[in-house]
Specification:
The chain is α/β, with parallel strands linked by helices. The protein is 44% helix and 17% strand. It has 14 helices and nine strands. A nine-stranded mixed β-sheet has the order 1-2-3-5-4-6-7-8-9, with helices on both faces. β8, α13 and β9 form a beta-alpha-beta unit. α1 runs antiparallel to α2 and α12 runs parallel beside α13. The longest helix is centred in the N-terminal third of the chain and has 30 residues. The radius of gyration is 23 Å and the shape is globular.
């Protein structure tokens, strides 16, 4: 039963109702009266009520924001552990093939293939779980033709999982729709979460003495994926996009690693690394390192690389909107900037779903691999 499906929500509501009736009409009267045992029993009943009554609300919130896309993901986020990459070993290990359908077909010749892979980072020492969508045109292409396909790294937010990009954003379906309509040429999609050192939110930063998340995304991942699938290593053929924290990572990777990515799109992106309980101290107390990861500071103080950037926000409902305007105003040649600005929206999956088709088409349209 899907965690975000209506059946799960209905079952949770029914369970809450049954437990409430059982407590009120049966259990509570039997635990009336003084004494330690009845008091502890009533405390236990209150905890049971709180849990069962809160479950439907949690499922509804999760369905709206997509923190987890399956029951498995709830455990998987904390169970994944970074491991040291082994130089010389296959940097991409295919774990299996994701079953899915598009417009009634499950034929790879029509919809392509989605592989679940583990990317091993020899430089960063981190492992990342990803889904790779190989479009049907790629599957029937020659080795020479495959090397000319554009590549898009799609990142989710935090907290989140890679399955969100499949189950809520539907990246492969959007790409196939765009190709079918002639709005976009086929591209290889690499989909993953920026959380490569779970459960810590590393904000795609090389943490002093800690996880080297920026190195993983800027160096390990492009080299590993390109080598395994025979793709281009020309940075002009690689783009990165994401929402929320993933959007910050995308813009930062293009500005800090233009030798790997020449185009980036950030949907509701932040423009500096957060500092909270989930991130911890990402820069070892070094103000210079923190400043260098501040995107507005970089645009104003440093030479800008020849990259294409897209930012998306909403005039009403999005707290990053003022910073988005500052970001747009700060971009100068040879960098270029485009924007998607909605009249109203918010920091949620409904808004990102409205922005994503245009952002994906824009990104692929800026990629070329000779």
């Amino acid at each position: 039963m899907a965690i975000n499906g209506l059946p799960a929500l209905i079952c949770a509501l029914v369970l809450a109702g049954v437990v409430f009736v059982a407590v009120v009409w049966w259990a509570w009267p039997r635990l009336a009266g003084p004494g330690a045992k009845p008091v502890l029993g009533r405390i236990g009943l209150q905890l049971v009520l709180a849990l069962t009554m809160g479950l439907p609300l949690l499922l509804a919130v999760n369905g709206g924001y997509g923190f987890y896309s399956s029951w498995h993901d709830i455990l998987a986020l904390s169970r994944d552990e970074p491991a040291t990459g082994t130089p010389g070993a296959d940097a991409v290990r295919v774990q299996g093939t994701h079953s899915w359908r598009y417009r009634g077909s499950d034929d790879p010749a029509v919809i392509g293939r989605i592989e679940a892979v583990t990317v091993r980072g020899s430089r960063s020492g981190l492992n990342g779980q990803a889904y790779v969508h190989l479009p049907p045109e790629f599957l029937r292409a020659s080795a020479e033709q495959r090397a000319r396909f554009p590549v898009v790294l799609a990142l989710s937010g935090y907290p989140s999982t890679t399955r969100v990009l499949l189950d809520l954003f539907h990246y492969p379906q959007l790409a196939l729709d765009a190709v079918r309509s002639g709005a976009m040429r086929p591209a290889v999609l690499v989909m993953m979460t920026p959380t490569v050192a779970p459960p810590r939110d590393t904000e795609c930063v090389d943490v002093p003495g800690g996880p080297q998340a920026e190195t993983f995304f800027s160096r390990d991942l492009p080299a590993a994926v390109a080598g395994h699938y025979g793709l281009t290593r020309d940075p002009r053929g690689w783009g990165v996009m994401g929402n929320s924290v993933g959007g910050y990572c995308a813009l930062k990777l293009a500005l800090r690693a233009p030798e790997s990515y020449r185009a980036a799109a950030g949907l509701s992106a932040s423009y500096a690394a957060e500092r909270d309980e989930e991130t911890g101290e990402l820069f070892g107390g070094n103000p210079v390192l923190r400043r260098e990861s501040d995107l507005l500071w970089r645009l104003r103080a440093l030479p800008q690389p020849p990259v294409s950037l897209l930012v998306a926000s909403s005039r009403k409902g999005e707290k990053q909107y003022p910073q988005t305007l500052e970001f747009i105003a700060a971009v100068r040649s040879p960098a270029r900037v485009s924007s998607i600005v909605l009249d109203s929206g918010g920091h949620n999956y409904e808004t990102w779903g409205r922005e994503l088709p245009a952002a994906l088409q824009w990104l692929v349209g800026r990629l070329r691999a000779d």
